[in-house]
Amino acid sequence: EVQLVESGGGLVQAGGSLRLSCAASGFTFDDYAIGWFRQAPGKEREGVSCITISDGWTYYADSVKGRFTISSDNAKNTVYLQMNSLKPEDTAVYYCAAKLGEPMPPDATMGHRSDFGSWGQGTQVTVSS
Prior knowledge:
By secondary structure, the chain is mainly β. The chain is built from no helices and eleven strands.
């Protein structure tokens, strides 16, 4: 059974940092891509970042580029999202999700949320001004 468990959310002041973790189990980690999405109240769920485990390809939404860093620890089957210089508009529930990985050109996007078949339960990130 595929399981994704997020952790690391919390309350932080603007300009601060948080590191989210996504612990994966129940599938062959190297075969997948892990994405981070977020959903703020009243807004649609949007893609934030993605990593292909096998080759390390990464993607960042323009809104987080230069502030967020995605990485993976293959020994721990865990993907991290380091979030720096946080802004109030980063406040949302953050979800990690998995889809089968494939070679991606450097300028590719992470795809739509419907491409991801397995989801975690989410973790709340609140950035105060």
